[in-house]
Amino acid sequence: DVSDAASATAMMADVDRAFGRLDVLINMASLYESVPFDAMTLEHWRRQLAVDLDGTFNMSRAAVPLLRRTGGGRSINFCDWVAASGRPRYKGYVAYYVAKAGVKALTEALALELASDRILVNAIAPGPILAPPGTSDEESDAVARATPLGQWGGPGEIAKAVLALVDSDFITGETIRVDGGRHVS
């Protein structure tokens, strides 16, 4: 449970016992559900932020001592192409948008804080990678048409971005949109 700081700390203790080191942390836990603002409760708001934003903070906080001990490392957070674009585009995702924008801001702040420890902190902002469950063929086709490259990306594109950030020794504080150009359309 990434929303629980003690759980994150326990996970990193398990990593330390099993491997004796940590080189890369990937913060990807997220909720994605549409809730119109008028129907949103404080409980929904807090749950979204607890998983997406607090979870990223909790895991980062728990992982940094291990990353420091190995002389640095990589932390890759996941936000969203919409939040990385700096403006909401879809109704019903207020809490999600705010949480992911917070993850982007946290990425930049941690990149500055942890640079002297040689911990590079970046974010990946996926766009149309995989259609959510329940997406109709019609909806899927509409997304592909709205994407300049005309298709969904697939998980392999995310893996390529992760590997590029792991391989780099000079990229930090950056958010890479893996969205087929969706942000420019």
- Nearest-integer average pLDDT: 97
Beta-strand share of residues: 5-15%
Give me the number of helical elements: 6
What is the percent of helical residues? 40-55%
Contiguous low-pLDDT stretches (5 residues minimum) are: none
- Tell me the radius of gyration: 17 Å
Biggest beta-sheet profile? 4 strands, parallel
Beta-strand segment tally: 4
Q: How far apart lie the N and C ends? A: 36 Å
What is the string of SSEs from the N terminus onward?
A: HEHEHHEHHE
* Biggest sheet strand line-up: 1-2-3-4
Note the main attributes of this structure.
4-stranded parallel β-sheet; 185 residues; single chain; globular; alpha/beta
Write the layout of secondary structure elements.
Elements: H1 5-19, E1 24-27, H2 42-69, E2 73-78, H3 81-84, H4 94-114, E3 119-126, H5 137-146, H6 155-167, E4 175-178
Parallel strand pairs: 1-2, 2-3, 3-4
Short description:
It is built from 6 helices and 4 strands; from the N terminus they run H-E-H-E-H-H-E-H-H-E. It is of the alpha/beta class and 185 residues long.
Task: Describe the protein in words.
The protein has about 180 residues and is α/β, with parallel strands linked by helices. Helix content is about 50%, strand content about 10%. It contains six helices and four strands. The protein has helices at about 5-20, 40-70, 80-85, 95-115, 135-145, 155-165, and strands at about 25, 75-80, 120-125, 175-180. It has a four-stranded parallel beta sheet with strand order 1-2-3-4, sandwiched between helices. Helix 2 (about 40-70) links the parallel strand 1 and strand 2 (about 75-80). The radius of gyration is 17 Å and the shape is globular. The termini are far apart. The model has no long low-confidence stretch (mean pLDDT about 95).
